[in-house]
Amino acid sequence: MSWDVERVRKDFPILQQEVHGKPLVYLDSAATSQKPQVVLDALTSYYVTVNANVHRGVHLLSEKATADYEAARVRVQRFLGAARPEEIVFVRGTTEGINLVAQSYGRRAVGPGDEVVITALEHHSNIVPWQMLCQERGAVLRVVPIDDDGQVELEAYEQVLGERTRLVAVAHVSNALGTILPVKRMIEMAHRRDVPVLVDGAQAVPHLRVDVRDLDCDFYVFSGHKVFGPTGIGALYGKSAHLEDMSPWQGGGDMIKVVTFEQTLYNDPPYKFEAGTPDIAGAIGLGAALDYLSGLGLSEVAAYEHELLEYGTRALAAVPGLRLIGTARDKASVLSFVLEGVHAHDVGTILDREGIAVRTGHHCAMPVMQRFGVPATTRASLALYNTRAELDALARALRRVHEIFG
Question: Model pTM?
């Protein structure tokens, strides 16, 4: 393995600090990832040298801001393998992207008695928007079960797909368990019935190479802050045919061509979905993050993280009283677990005093917790800057937690 993790870590200033007098061990990247210096520089440069609104000015700064903003859209297009930049809509994040599709595409496509299909692995952001749509339209939300390892039951998925299915919405990678879903196969199965598919890629894009044309998904959405970019920015990919047919979901400036008091002529995609002043700096920062990740190489990142995940799995499995939740064959960068007799919040609090940052709770995936009969888990989530030594520190600290409560 040629991955030089120490060189990579130098790109992330925040990782150099101490917490409670201990070196920071950041194992919460599934919640939000840390930012490399190139992203911080891109944000600073925009505000120091460019700051102006896009698409509306003829002065130099506005033209520069527009050029940088649209160049970021092209970076997202290339990162996802989309055919055209017009297929990329900037949104606040995954949640907003899913809500956009639910409120625009969903309201047109889903009617009384129709069905929307999700899985039991979904984040709340890929459950609640569809519940709201189904309640409004008199439709039914169908849920595909998962097995004891946290894998989607494909036979059940096949059976759930039916004549009334109007949309499938699935995660690419589970945020709670790390399960990599077989989305390409699931898309093929749905398309055989002419059912479009939305993929929630929030937890996939930092770890896997994504090609939306190879997947043949209809929509793909992700958040910038999960992939080493800023918070408050994300992207929705949609096939051109869908975006052209969809109505805007918000009204305002920039999403129009002509406005009178009698009617409004809407702009073309993607602009008709970007009402108001967008997060210009965020988009530029996201572009810098994707360039950074692409420069490291997604294949190299995935290989390193896979080795790290296997190492961490072995290390945690040896901790007395620890039970891993989610043992799928295909996983990415998540170690979710419970420690016998100790609430997850107590685990997290003690780990924090050791300088180790993890996530505790239901991870916005309450149905997953219910499926495994636990109120909460402790989740250590990995990224390209983590090390074996950090996982050793985690395992040592967990042994101390077990001794304290044992």
Answer: 0.97
